[in-house]
Specification:
The protein has 309 residues and is an alpha/beta fold. The chain contains 13 helices and 8 strands. The strands form 2 sheets. The chain has a 4-stranded parallel beta sheet, sandwiched between helices. The chain has a 4-stranded antiparallel beta sheet with strand order 4-5-3-6. α12 links the parallel β7 and β8. The chain is globular, with a radius of gyration of 18 Å. The termini are close together.
Length: 309
């Protein structure tokens, strides 16, 4: 049986999210390691903090990286087999690179904090926004964005599943885009509580800073194939990985094509590795014959491991 791991990004975080894993090996120690690197207690943030504080991009990005790596380490420590390929949704792509042996955890922790700061500085809080458009095909979403953009930026940012697309851009353009999407027949159009407009051209200044930062980061050829968001392909050299990460910051997350690419490789099960249950349900909507399972607590992790044994 061929299986893949996918790693969640921003939006899956919640206070108390790691309690479901109990005392599985690797969970607390991974957070302790990340906390020491940043000089900030990330474990306290996810166990005792507030949802508002956790939702700040500069906190969410390193926290979700630590969470995904912690669960992956727990999987391996409990006897789980390495997957045949990996991918991550947006920020989760960094977790996937750690799992694939391409990026060290220490570098990834620093990198995600830098990425978050660069993104927030590129677009001050309140200037940009994102919204989820439900029940509209991709081309209709693109058309709504073109109509509503005016002199501002408004672009598709995440192609999550058929009929579920997230748009990003200037906040006032988002407001117009929500109304345009409804006029095109969207079932729902919902502004999201995001502090930065990810995966649109407003992020190009942040991408330039990220490119400079990545030049000093050591990357290895992945030991497990990584399917990248922006290209829906593998990057097999350090230079190509850097390019994919830079492009990802201002390009849409092509998640539908990512799951289709996994299915084309013969993947029959996709495990969402980390807290929450955002990516697993998307799998069935994209490819009904592929099973999506969330490793969102200790019991789910044990059941998946035993099923593969």
């Amino acid at each position: 049986m061929s299986f893949a791991f996918v790693f969640p990004g921003q939006g899956s975080q919640s206070v108390g999210m790691m309690q479901a894993y109990g005392d599985l090996p690797g969970i607390r120690s991974t957070f302790d390691e990340a906390s020491a690197i940043l000089g900030q207690d990330l474990w306290a943030l996810v166990t005792q903090g507030t949802e508002e504080t956790l939702a700040l991009t500069i906190h969410t990005q390193p926290v979700m990286l630590a969470a995904g790596v912690a669960v992956y380490r727990a999987w391996l420590a409990s006897g789980g087999k390495p997957p045949q390929c990996v991918a991550g949704h947006s920020l989760g792509e960094y977790t996937a690179l750690v799992a694939a042996g391409s990026l060290s955890f220490a570098d990834a922790v620093r990198l995600t904090r830098f990425r978050a700061e660069a993104m927030q500085q590129a677009v001050p809080h309140g200037v940009g926004g994102m919204a989820a458009i439900l029940g509209l095909d991709d081309e209709a979403v693109r058309a709504a964005c073109r109509e509503a953009a005016g002199n501002e930026v408004l672009e598709p940012a995440n192609f999550n599943s058929p009929g579920q697309v997230v748009i990003a851009g200037h906040r006032t353009a988002i407001e117009r885009g929500v109304e345009a999407a409804k006029a095109h027949g969207a079932k729902r159009a919902i502004p999201l509580a995001m502090s930065v407009p990810s995966h649109c051209s407003l992020m190009k200044p942040a991408a330039e800073r990220l490119q400079d930062y990545l030049a000093d980061i050591t990357l290895q050829v992945p030991t497990i194939p990584v399917i990248h968001n922006a290209t829906v392909g593998e990057a097999t050299t350090p230079e190509a990985i850097r390019s994919a990460l830079v492009e990802q910051l201002y390009s849409p997350v092509r998640w539908v094509e990512t799951i289709q690419a996994m299915a084309a490789r013969g993947i029959t099960q996709v495990f969402e590795c980390g807290p929450g249950k955002v990516l697993a349900p998307l799998v069935k909507r994209i490819r009904p014959e592929v099973q999506g399972l969330a490793l969102n607590d200790a019991a789910a992790l044990a059941a998946a491991r035993d099923n593969l044994a």
